[in-house]
Structures are given as C-alpha cells and as structure tokens.
Amino acid sequence: MPILNREERLKNMNSANLTHLIYTSVASPQLDASDLKQILQVARSNNSQSSVTGMLLYISNSFFQILEGDEATLIDLFKIISADPRHVNVTMIIQEPIAERAFGDWTMGFSEVAPSELEEVEGLSDFFQKGDSLTNLQPGRAKKLLSAFAKGRWRARLDGAAK
Q1: Per-residue pLDDT for 20 more than 90?
Q2: pLDDT digits (tens, 9 = 90+) for 77-114
Q3: What is the pLDDT of residue 139?
Q4: Looking at the chain, which terminus has fewer C-beta neighbours within 10 angstroms, N or C?
Q5: What is the DSSP letter of 45?
C-alpha cells in the first residue's frame, strides 16, 4: 500500500465519517508558556500523522478546542486529552458530522485571546461580560465562536498554525 502525503490523507478523510469535536477545559494552575508550547508541538506532530486538523484558543486560563477528522480517531484522541493532567473540567460541547473542514490547512492553529475580544463577537458578549467560564459554553455559542474564528477573527496572530 503506498504511503500518502498529508494532502492525500486529508482528501481521503473528507468522507462520510468527517466529524468535528469541540470541547473546553480549564488549565491546571501550574501550566505555563513552555507547557503550552510543548502541547502544541506534540499535537501538531500527532495530528499531522492522524489527519486531524483544528484550532486551540487559550482564554483566561481556559481552553476552547475544535478538532476535525475521522470520528473514531477523534473519539480516541478525546480520551487521551481528557486524561491529561495539565487541564481539568474537560467538557465536550459538540461532536457531530461535518461536510468539510473549517481548519483543513492547520494541524493545530493556536491563539491566545483576551476575554474583552470575545465580548465583540455577536452572540457572545453577554456570556463573557458575566464572567462565565468556557466550560459553561452551550453548543449554540460554541458554534458562534467557531464561526468567528473560521471567518478570520484572530487568524492574523496565529502561532505557527500552518505547521
């Protein structure tokens, strides 16, 4: 069987099992910038091999992540993510089939976002003004955040997203 390059694997993955999984979590108190860098390096390498794409937002010690790929692969990956001690309160918000990838060019895009920036996103301002945690984010608002990011908000300052 021939070895497929990343683009060929992604093309093959845009099939009936293409899914996105969105979750939030709270960073452990001891998590620091070097830990974030390590998380991204490992995720980008592993995701590339598994044809997983997505993005990670870091907001006030909380994570909001979207993963895209084969459903079974994402379920297995989420089990590993959920057991990682570098974060707690891992909460899956959405797992559903998708027609196409929103982040197909990125093994893992990353951006650190200030809560005040989220207040500018239509449909999210009241949520963040109340100081709610991302772990309380409901599916509808999660999709608004996904849409804001997919349409270009915060992309200009992505850290190594194309890696």
Answers
A1: yes
A2: 999 999 999 999 999 999 999 999 988 888 888 877 77
A3: 79
A4: N
A5: H
**Residue 74 belongs to some domain of the structure:** yes
Torsion of CA 135, 66, 43, 101, to 10 degrees: 180
Name which residue leads in pLDDT, 126 or 89. Answer: 89
Domain count, the chain: 1
Residues in the chain, how many? Answer: 163
Q: How far is the C-alpha of 63 from the C-alpha of 43, rounded, in Å?
A: 14
> What is the CATH classification number for the domain harbouring 117?
3.30.70.100
Q: Does some domain include residue 162?
A: no
Position 161 in a domain: no
Kindly list the distances between the CA atom of residue 117 and the CA atoms of 93, 120, 133, 145, in Å, as whole numbers in the listed order.
21, 6, 15, 11
Tokens 């709610």 — which residue?
A: 132
